[in-house]
Amino acid sequence: MCSHLDSDDRVPVQLNSELHQAHLELLSAHCATYQLRLHYSVSDLARFGRQDVLRKSAQAATELNDFYASLERSLPPAPQDPQPPLLLTSDDIVQSIRQVSNYLRQQRGHYLPAAQPLSNQHKARMWPYFSPTLLDQVRFVELKGQRVPAPDFYAQARAKGFDNLPEITHMDSLTFIDVVVFNEELTERALFHALVHAVQFHVLGVERYTERFVRSFLKTRTHFTVPLEAHAFSLTSKFMLTTPQTFSVEDQVVRWLIDGRY
Fold first, then answer.
1. Which residue, of 30, 167, 199, 204, has the greatest Cβ tally within 10 A?
2. How many CB atoms lie within 10 A of CB 242?
């Protein structure tokens, strides 16, 4: 039996592009829901939340669950790789923070010579959300066909029990302090997300950013539920709305820092 995809080799490419976009939207929704669960109980949400929004959200989540569950039943079984237990000493954590911090600085130094400033068009699109100083400072690189390799310390981290490490090679963009590297090419969504991280680096500094990222990852064990990452996803979703609201990303980052949400 032939699939309609056989008639056009370009269709699978478009399909996977749209699947990837849907995956990003799901991550954003997951991050927003995770933050709700952190700050409010189910009883409080049911009691004080807008009933129409709660019902529509629950209905949408149920429909998504049914759809992806049917897809999952059609997939071949995933290989089961047992993960070693996570047994880390305080020295291991300090070493991990140091490794990530060094990696960020090394990658910045590696890509900076080939990096270029944002165009006036990019700045015009982003200036309602980011300061002119930051937009002038940030540099970017489009790899186009190449991808940032996984850090050398990943093998050592996995041996110590770190699972679900951030998939560096599959990310749209990576922010190395003030140098943004796009694994393929610059897109508006990926640029905004990367600039949020640039603001976080500016406000927190490299050391505090790294420490909070690593310690949060050890607690959540998932990259996109780390508050620094969750906040970037959340703000990017607001930016991508059909009628987005104008806001200062730096103000949002400072507010989360003051509130202890990082």
1. 199
2. 4
Tell me if 80 is assigned to some domain. Answer: no
Domain membership flag for residue 83: no
Q: Are 202 and 134 in contact (CB under 8 A)?
A: yes
Q: pLDDT grade, residue 164 (50/70/90)? A: confident
Which positions ≥6 away from 118 have C-beta within 8 Å? 126, 135, 138, 139, 140
Residues 30 and 109 reside in one and the same domain:
no
Most confident of 37-46, 56-65, 149-158: 149-158
Which pLDDT score, from 0 to 100, does residue 9 have? Answer: 54
**Helical H runs in 40-131?**
42-48, 51-74, 90-111, 120-126
Do 54 and 108 share a structural domain?
A: no
pLDDT at site 31: 62
- φ, ψ for residue 41, nearest 5 deg: -80, 165
The residue whose two tokens read 């270029």 is 116
CA torsion sign, 87 to 90 to 91 to 95? positive
Count CB atoms within 10 A of the CB of residue 164: 13
Q: Tokens at residue 62, please?
A: 């149920």
Whether residue 249 is found in the same domain as residue 161 = yes
State how far Cα 120 lies from the chain centre.
Answer: 25
Average pLDDT of the residues in 197-219: 96
What domain range is 16 assigned to? 4-74
pLDDT of residue 225: 85
Contacts 24+ apart (CB under 8 A), 217-223: 218/86, 218/88, 218/93, 221/86, 221/163, 221/164, 222/164, 223/164, 223/165, 223/166, 223/167
**Is 20 part of a structural domain of the chain?**
yes
